[in-house]
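Changelog excerpt

This revision adds worked examples to the README so contributors can see how folded entries look when concatenated. The first example is reproduced verbatim below.
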Amino acid sequence: MTIEKVTCPYCGYKMPIMYGKDATGSGIFVKCKGKNCKKIFEIKINIK
């Protein structure tokens, strides 16, 4: 299984959140941990 990290779409910070290549989901909101960003964004994984 390949594990990938979530990247913030605003600042490019690689978040300490990981998911498997076969994962699916939406409606997951996280706050960026980048030093100057702190924006909230939704994670959408393999949604068709």
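The second example, added in the same revision:
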Amino acid sequence: MMKNFVEELRWRGMLAQIMPGTEEFLQKGMVSAYLGTDPTADSLHIGHLCGIMMLRHLQHCGHKPYLLVGGATGMIGDPSGKSQERNLLDSETLYHNQEAIKQQVSKFLDFDGDAPNKAEMVNNYDWMKDFSFLDFARIVGKHITVNYMMAKESVKKRLNGEARDGLSFTEFTYQLLQGYDFLYLYEHNRVQLQLGGNDQWGNMTTGTELIRRKLGQEAEAYALTCPLITKADGNKFGKTESGNIWLDRNRTTPYVFYQFWLNVSDEDAEKYIKIFTSLDRPTIDALIEEQREDPARRTLQRRLAEEVTRMVHSQADLDMAIAASNILFGKATKQNLLELDEQTFNDVFQDVPRYEVGRECLGLPAVEIFNQEGMQIFPSKSEMRKLVKGGGVSLNKEKLNTFDRIITAEDLIANKYLLIQKGKKNYSLVSVK
């Protein structure tokens, strides 16, 4: 018996809409299914993760996942859930983005090996680049009426004034292009199921309709969506004040990535641990019970942050993220500071007061450097002396034993920073330019 993919999604809260007969069809044997992603950036963000996790669960249930990168449709833009038309990208940029996305998704799906359900990646640009307008009109256009297309919710919203600039013909035909993707994959790769976010339901059903109208009503093609992920407070999931939480470490460091999951609410943690991890139901139920008994321990958030950070990045990155978190909120040493890359170091201390001094200050006593005009690290030199004498001041996580200790280049973190700490949690950062 194959594991029931639909039931797996259902208990995880990852099932929104499903075409009749889909669950029964999936139980008959291995099914090939695809999910499309738009390569408008060279990294996915966590808003894409629910769809990628659907593919992951699909493969674990014995089915074959296809990730379709929309190289062609990415040049056009999709009106679903959007009020403005997307910027168009050139083919060189799209190819670069595709390769970067595949590298990220390979951490979730098995693209290698000889298993019949190994993952595949396809790009609709490969079959659309030589597809003429006459071909499109003859093969696709004649099978779907304008009335059918106008009835789609995404189209009606754009035509009823939600979009400032209306709906372009290019975007209007998007559902036909996405429908043709399904038809092409059905005919050439025997793909019979399309997965996607719930905002894609209209486009996805156009695909199943096109397949049946062109190939006959007996053609077996299905669609299944996951809900759009939200936060308990109603705000958009995956967004912070600084923007998206990306999977690319150069856009979002593993430390910031880890902190995002660590700081979600209890209600969201219960939901997210089902959606964004592969932990089984008994394990998750036990974690939820433990959390409810003692919410202060934040058991769910910690396990969620660990699982997702390890999956997206690596165990080494997770270890560094935990160590970086402990620098502010637990015990740490100068060695812990030295092990951080500069971006992570800055992320850890992003909310700490910062000051700058010139490099000519190196060689001066600490009391002179940290009490310059404009600095508010210490009330005065005499107060600094008292604090140092009482053992209450640290430099780079090491106790400052004398207020007049000479500061040299060897004290600099990343050849640039001096971290001053008063008491347990009062930090200041001095950049030496």
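Reviewer comment on example two: DSSP finds 20 helices and twelve strands in the chain. Confidence is low (pLDDT under 50) at residues 81-85.
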